[in-house]
Amino acid sequence: MRLLKEILNLMGGYHVKSGIYHYYRNEYKQAVDFFRKALRDEPTLAESDRRLARYYMTETFVSSAERFESKDDPEAAERDFARAVEVSPDYPDIRFRHGRVLEKLGRHDDAIREYEAALDSDHGYLDAKVALAFCLLAVGREEEAAERFAEALEMKVRHVRDPYEKGLLRLREGMIDEAREFLREAFFSAPDRFAEHYRKALQLLKAEDWENALDEMDQSMELNPKFADLHNYRGICLCQLDRVEEGIGAFRRSAALNPDYVEARLNLAFAQLRAGQFKEAESQLEAVLALDPTQTAAALKVEELRTGRASESRRTPPRGGTR
Fold first, then answer.
1. pTM, 2 dp
2. C-alpha–C-alpha distance, residues 297 and 9, integer Å
3. Residues 92-107, buried b or exposed e (16+ Cβ, 10 A)?
4. Please, are residues 64 and 57 in contact by the beta-carbon 8 Å criterion?
5. What local confidence, expressed as pLDDT, does residue 97 receive?
6. Cα(70)–Cα(89) distance, integer angstroms
7. pLDDT recorded at residue 310
8. φ and ψ at 211, to 5 degrees?
9. Are 110 and 78 in contact (CB under 8 A)?
10. What's the rounded Cα separation, in Å, for the pair 186 and 308?
11. What does the DSSP 8-state code read for residue 316?
12. Which of 24, 27, 44, 68 pairs as cysteine with 73 (C-beta 3.0–4.6 A)?
């Protein structure tokens, strides 16, 4: 769940909502059928709703692939990762995971292409760089492998050095909380452990096991405190647990890490509405619409707030007047 439920209720037509319903019931074939119908048969569907359908279709294929992986069926997993890539070719993590399965199947040339695609989308993707180097080595491309290993070493050093230097600078300036965050990033970063906790958190989030999902997210944050998606998902858990003020803080942090993250800003606005912070929420909704004018949930909520305010002003007599 990338968005709060009250936002999802305002988005998508019948087919998108039906697809999401089946996705959360782990009924993947039915979910995909509905998402395909939405994208094919609803020409008036807003672009934000089309993106929502594509996002959930991608997640459906990934979830199905993970299920096949857990059953030790790499061929079926590969097919669904390939389908996920077809829908969302710019998701580096999916390209990387597809590459892993291809490599397991002995399809090294295809795996190399997927690792390279992951790096095209995220030039700092260390795991993809290392996997690419080993895969090149496996097919006898030793010189290219040596170059990739050298790049991976520099990348690994940079992953420690850059946040370390920023942390020391903040420490000298007396900015202790920021310093601690950068230094955690420098010394506690462990991509494999992070991925394990993060993926488990998303599975628990999907199952609406909010408490345990939050626990996994907190462990993930110890390993990667600057991942905007993680703070956004954490905010959803907190809001579902009625810890709305903490949820607002998590959404705010997510948006600060990635100012163009529309979903985090949208969640922030709706959490602020829950907390009665109407002026702040309306301002945030306007910021969402500035980033994405097609965002239906934001447009509907802004209209509702303005209509309610206009109605209230008509009901309220001027000072000194009579009714």
1. 0.83
2. 8
3. bbbbbbbbbbbbeeee
4. no
5. 97
6. 24
7. 56
8. -60, -50
9. no
10. 49
11. S
12. 68
